[in-house]
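Q: How would the structure tokens look for this protein?
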Amino acid sequence: MAAPIDIQLILCDAAVSDPSGKVHMLGAGWSVTGAPIAPHAVVVLMGIPWDRANQKIPLRLQLCDENGQPVQVTKPDGERTPVVHSGDLEIGQPPELAAETLIDAAFSVSIPPLQLGPGRYQWRVQVGEQLVSKLFTAQQGRDQYRSE
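A: Here is the predicted structure in token form.
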């Protein structure tokens, strides 16, 4: 069995990843927002175990309802599609790090406005065989940028 990856999922108003591997976030850490859902970002921070370096690890980020069912949105052409981002992650073993050191990896995904009604939703990230989710609530009439 492969060593587990340390995974954190953070919701924020905006985020950008830089070439050094850091993620710069604004308005991070919310779990309640307005409906429809304003533009936001999902940040995934990971600690990759030393023994999993130099291996391709599949990852998938998807918006689901509170029961884990994929949420679909309507594209401009009228087609319904799930909100999903996927790819592979491969991290090298930096020679200067001691064995057994977790290797940092991070990415951010900017999400456009989503025409979804009030309710509970969750962003789910699957990294290899691990699944982590972050629940949030969308409330009608709530201003995303006001913390009350």
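Residues 58 and 88 are 4 Å apart (CA to CA).

The first strand starts at residue 6 and ends at 12.

Upvote if useful.
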